[in-house]
Amino acid sequence: MTYDLSVINHRLSETPGDYVQESEKYFNSRVRKAADEIFNNIDQSPIVLLSGPSGSGKTTTAKKLALELKSLGINAYNVSLDNYFVTVDPVTAPRTPAGEIDYESPSCLDMTLLNSHFQRLAAGEAIDIPHFNFSQQARDSDRATPMKLGKSDIAVFEGIHALNECITHEHPAAYKIYVSTLTDITDGGEVLVDRASLRLVRRIVRDDYFRGADPQFTLEMWGNIRRGELLNILPYKDSANMTIDAALPYEISVMKQFTGGVFDKIQPDAGHYEVLQQVLDAFGRFETTDPALVPADSILREFIGGSSFEY
Fold first, then answer.
1. Domain limits of the chain?
2. Is 27 exposed, middle or buried (0-12, 13-18, 19+ CB in 10 A)?
3. Residues 36, 206: Cα–Cα separation, whole Å
4. Model pTM?
5. Which H or E run contains 36?
6. Average pLDDT estimate for 95-100
7. Which of 236, 210, 194 is CA-nearest to residue 310?
8. Which of 174, 179, 258, 289 is the Cys-Cys partner for 253 at CB 3.0 to 4.6 Å?
9. What is the pLDDT of residues 106-117, one digit of tens each?
10. SS3 helix, strand, coil % of the chain, rounded to 5?
11. Which CATH number fits domain 2-304: 2.170.120.30, 3.30.470.10, 1.10.290.10, 3.40.50.300?
12. Which residues does the UniProt record annotate as the domain AAA+ ATPase (predicted)?
């Protein structure tokens, strides 16, 4: 799927507020459809698996899904698969071809515990969700979140590996969602900004604003992130019951206003800078849209701030 730059700019110059709302309405309609299908599947499984690559807006999607399910009388509890990371052991940790620890590998997850929790939740039993301390790169043995599902409860497990066959094979009845930016922006029939680059910009801005991550470090990680996506995420996307396009056609017209100071921190000799440069060159060809037009519950707010959700 593609969005044409001339159409985007025409709509933004004529009726920016309407165009923003139309874009949001389409995304929300997909989330609502997923909620309806989950409601109809609850007798088969109380587990929802939500996957997508980095920068897709999985967390916001899960939160919006929970609100839609609540309107149907279903309580949804969102669980990040990050909490199922195993304590990092430099000796046994998976490695990239360059010899670095591969944090994008599904081997970093405690699959045994995770699959046990799926089975116990489906059986109506209580579990204790672990807590992973990223600063210590270890599971926090003193922290855990108890959970037990009632007849009108759903657990949404969200993470990049949620659709990996190591997980879905053990619980095939779970409802599966894949969310990602699935649209390129074209100009004159040629791709101006591809869907992966859109996620890269989202991640760099979010990580700088809200996670204290150096933008250059984020960019230089991009190669291994993309490698992990191609190996461990994209092969399983077609197993999803519902696919949601998280790309908003207007978003670059807003996002470009948040990138100046962030991208200035990145040196031109940084790895994958050419990818970023292509996006930067494209920014000037987009109309500028007032960020105030972006709804507080928009998926875009996960990356630029001002969200009505807590992260």
1. 2-304
2. buried
3. 31
4. 0.95
5. helix 16-41
6. 90
7. 210
8. 289
9. 999 999 999 999
10. 45, 20, 35
11. 3.40.50.300
12. 44-206
